Amino acid sequence: MTVRKTLSIVTAALVVAGLAACSSGAPSSPTPDANGCLNIQPGDASKSITVDGKFGATPKVTIPTPLKTTDIERTVVIKGNGAVVKGGDSIGIALVAYNGTTGKELTPAAGFDGQPAQSIKVDDKAFVPGLVRAVECLPLKSRVVLTSTTKEAFGDADVSSLKLKASDPVVFVADLVEKEPTRATGKSVTPPEGFPTVKLAKDGAPTVTIPKTDPPTETKIGVLKQGDGAEVKATDTVTIQYSGLLWRNGQVFDSTWAKGQAYSGVASQFVPGFTKALVGQKVGSQIIAIIPPADGYGSKGNGDIKGTDTMVFVVDILKAVS
Description:
The chain is mainly beta. Helices cover about 10% and strands about 30% of the residues.
């Protein structure tokens, strides 16, 4: 289930098609250093690629095709001066990926030229190993090029949609834009009367207790933490953490906390009640929304959500980009 109208949360959470972790396979070499970093070194393949342009601008990338590599290599094109990216961090990046055999883009460039940075978590369980290796343990504001075999880049992930052969090398070019919060940072406020109660774990994940009453027949929205950031507009791309459950039994049907990765999408592209809950709220806020079928999936329902089900969402608004 998802709060989006047409696109599943698992698919929509990708930076670009094919880059979410579907694998447990991680690079076999080199070994981690004292800080837990794999400390990928430059090599002939990564150094052979020319990357021109300023940080943040779409790079002009020249690949000597067909590129040959049997290992994973990383060359820092621009060394940033920001905080060092650590394992488990959530960061915003700009990214473009290539087939090293043909030199063609695997995915369109995303996050450059003032476009919203693409949110990833520096964790092999959340994203494919090659992307994690590209960004880990470098300072923010760096630009990096990583080359690797398809296996080193994607582990056991299904790359059929990218039309990659097992023998094809992969090239990632990424700008490390910013570190992103993983939970709402606003000031706690008195919970609304009659709403479900919410308790937070150390990582911010909510546990929700539904009252033993009938659900409201109209969408209800309450603020649990009041942020002081920008006000969300319907056209904004928002980055959020959320947990969704059913009023009738308290069953969680979807949770970004459980997946280990925040979600980014346009505020207007959710089911109506969820969009109502987001628009007008401030970044940094945590909200709770009670959404009846009329503002959710209607009488047809969706998967395990029946046409009579009222949904409850707890949402942390981490970022909004116009």
